[in-house]
Amino acid sequence: MTSKRQPQTLEEVAEYLRDRELSDIVQVAKEPAGRRFIMRLLNMCGTFGNPFTGNSKTFYNCGMQAVGQELFKDLMEADPDLFPIMQRESLIRENDDARMVKLAEQREADGE
């Protein structure tokens, strides 16, 4: 039985740990639920928005955005093909969700 050689130097350990982090992201993103979760986090963090409010909430928003940007950077390093897939799925899901809400609103208005 062959076992993988354990990292020996600090550089090897750092590389091993980083590879594991990126592998974890890819594993989560293999599942549709994982991609939805990652996209939800990116959106919650305001990753692609403007954090400035004109008051002290800006500091909070900037911190949230920094977390989202780190996640996005890791996602792109792990597999740059994942984000476009997630964007497409998100758009489809938003359209489907909007349709579902509209139908429910119509049913309620009709007294069903």
UniProtKB/TrEMBL annotation:
Protein's recorded name: Bbp19-like phage domain-containing protein
InterPro entries documented for this protein: Bbp19-like_phage
Domain Bbp19-like phage: 30-84
Record Pfam families: Phage_Bbp19 (PF25181)
Species lineage: Bacteria, Bacillati, Bacillota, Negativicutes, Acetonemataceae
